[in-house]
Amino acid sequence: MDYKTIFPEMLIAEHEAAAARWKHRAAKERAKGRFDRANAYNENADRRCLAAESIRAGGALMFLRDFQLAVKRWTAACFGETISADTIERNHRFLEEALELVQSLGCTRAEAKALVDYVYDRPVGEPMQELGGTMTTLCALANAHDFDVASAAGDELARCWANLEKIRAKQAAKPKHSPLPGPSS
User: Fold this and answer.
1) Domain range for residue 41?
2) Rounded Cα–Cα distance for residues 167 and 176 (Å)
3) 33, 37, 67, 181: which one has the fewest Cβ atoms less than 10 Å from its Cβ?
4) CA distance linking residue 11 with residue 58, whole number of Å
């Protein structure tokens, strides 16, 4: 087996080193007034940078797939298959958590309501594109606040496993398909 498949960081480093060499050559050509060659070298550097980012993304995607499977195991253990697969329930719980996140970071009720109106006044999006947008903007939000998404996700899943019975009891006490996580009043 190729070491680059076992240690993708080595392949990333190779691409980044090659990109640096191409950028150096481009700068030399630009200094000599050879702009066509400089542009060609910069294009090679850009391709190497994109290759490194693709490898990084592949590792991140493997983490996401593993984490998604771990969450599936937890929801099945906690709620059973029926509630785990209940799309209305999952929609409500996701929206609740998203709102709690932005609330904890200073988003006001008025801002949240304005965004609800804005979204619902627009055409309905494509689910897979919107899912990708959700993941991308979640990571962008985490970067802006200097949060580690993987650590937060792992910590929360561990907390969920530790509170399995408490979460089951809360689920059993709430009305079916209510957007609210518990009885209203």
Assistant:
1) 1-65
2) 15
3) 33
4) 12
